[in-house]
Amino acid sequence: MKRGELNLKICLNGHIVKELEQNVCPQCGSQIVTECPACHTAFQEYDHLPTVCVKCGHVYPWTKEKLQSLKELAEKMDYLTRDERNILEDSICEIIRETPFTPVAAIRVKKIIEKLGPKTSIFKDQLLDISSETAKEIIWTD
Fold this sequence. Notes:
- The chain is mainly alpha-helical.
- Helix content is about 45%, strand content about 5%.
- It has helices spanning about 60-75, 80-95, 100-115, 120-130, 135-140; strands at about 10, 15, 30-35.
- It has a 3-stranded antiparallel sheet with strand order 2-1-3, with no helix packed on it.
- A hairpin with a 4-residue loop joins strand 1 (about 10) and strand 2.
- Helix 1 runs antiparallel to helix 4 and helix 3 (about 100-115) packs parallel to helix 5.
- The radius of gyration is 16 Å and the shape is globular.
- The N and C termini lie far apart (about 40 Å).
């Protein structure tokens, strides 16, 4: 790291912390981290909240929490069939990374979201935070 360059500070709930002297997140009070918990690579400045470590591929704690939250939300969508909920739950795990399966998973998610219409606003907001760029383009482009 170059002199004067600062590591990104992120709380375990995924809030980017701008205040240099903060020891806990001012939004939620959770612990602040500056590096990957698995390989200890320092976070760098990103134009978006990172979901996985670029060095080791570890899924960050805030990503795991949002995935769990999305799975629980999907489980509560009783207007979906059991198969649709299972497809949705499986697919959201695929759209956080850029892999050959990302477009397929994103198309599955988009079809289910389109079926649900406005009932999915909370789900869509949470999903947007952790989706890869490819998934965002597929899901949120008409």
